[in-house]
Amino acid sequence: MTRTILYDGLNLSLKKGTGVATYARSLLSTARSLGYRTGVVYGIQGNIPRDPMLREVILFDDSAQQGRNEAFSSTRRWLRRRVAAPFGVKPVPIPLNGTVILKSLQAQIGDAELLYAANDLFGLARHHFKRYGSSLALNFEAQPDLLHCTYPLPLTVRKAVNVYTIHDLVPLRLPYLTEDDKRYHYKMLRSLVRKADHIVTVSETSRADIVKVLGVDEKRVSNIYQAVHVPDKLREKPDDVIADELAGIFRLDWKKYFLFFGAFEPKKNISRLIDAYLSAKVDLPLIIVGAPGWKGAETQQLIEEERFRFYLREKDKIIPQRQIQRFDFVSYPLLVSLIRGARAVVFPSLYEGFGLPVLESMQLGTPVLSSTEGSIPEIAGDGALLVDPYSTDEMRKALYSLAHDGDLCAGLSEAGPRQAARFSAEQYHRRVGALYDSLFSGSL
Question: Is residue 130 within 8 Å of 184, Cβ to Cβ?
Fold first, then answer.
């Protein structure tokens, strides 16, 4: 009999994606390839329609995901959250009848065979925990065998195996770097690890944190790492084609810029990166890809200051160009081109549970400058140049070296793919398979 595994759709519904969304899609795809029947349960605003066709339409309606279509929703949602759902909720099946054209949305549903939705599911789960101190029960007509929350969520399925991925403990280890409600986060995590059938994480660093800080028996925490697979058509695109893309779209020259990409938040250490970059006095522009989030306004203001310009001579004209440029978002194919064309990717994070940008860049053979903190040394090995992220001077020296030392860059370009091979899709497939086999056999 084929086992059914359900995943939460909290991050899968994000159009621009995050590291957690990438993790969820990889996990879903891997489970499907292992022969499991897979499903996703989403939360949307408003009542779920009775008409199956309209359910499909509403699931993929951005306004329903964001709650913009309910003039009366504020009071109603407040009342519902206040009472919560002491007896649980019953997610409604969403049949895919072909009404919605899904060609541009495939990443949102991944390889899921079963789709479910419940009204305000994730907000309700949070308020349910605050009111009752327990996880919100999900009641399905067709009982799944396992619920795997790809992010710490107070959700549970009775009579099923319940597994939760905790990527890191940044809100507890570095509370000044996130806007989370720390009291809620701590109590919720303590409850999850106490009642979960198993905890999953993505690095030995995070595993050690979970065992030490949350007091979990180490036998109840498994590290499956993460994997990155860049499609062959993007990996094998000729360098000259990428160079033309970069020049035409971004006015950038091949291997003549530094690149940062990732969430625009305090733990990414962008302010120190900018200070180090400016003090290094290099001629290569710094490109930042990421939308400002919590406390991102100050850094954005710094980037926009007029003094951060230099001037280029182009066909007897002096053209001003921003020394530091930022883009909110670029498509994945363009991001791959930006990574491949960069002199180096810089990712001086203060703490990461894994660090996908480091792995992605190493896999593509681009030199990486990153951090000695968190899980980065574990993931990067000798495939990247690592510095103390709290030391602007160390970062400055490293940037200067990368800008001027061709041999250093060549060495990193060779070492990066070798290190990245340790986190291949094949090895990830094996680790996930072993995890689920053990969970269903009861050996964990």
Answer: yes
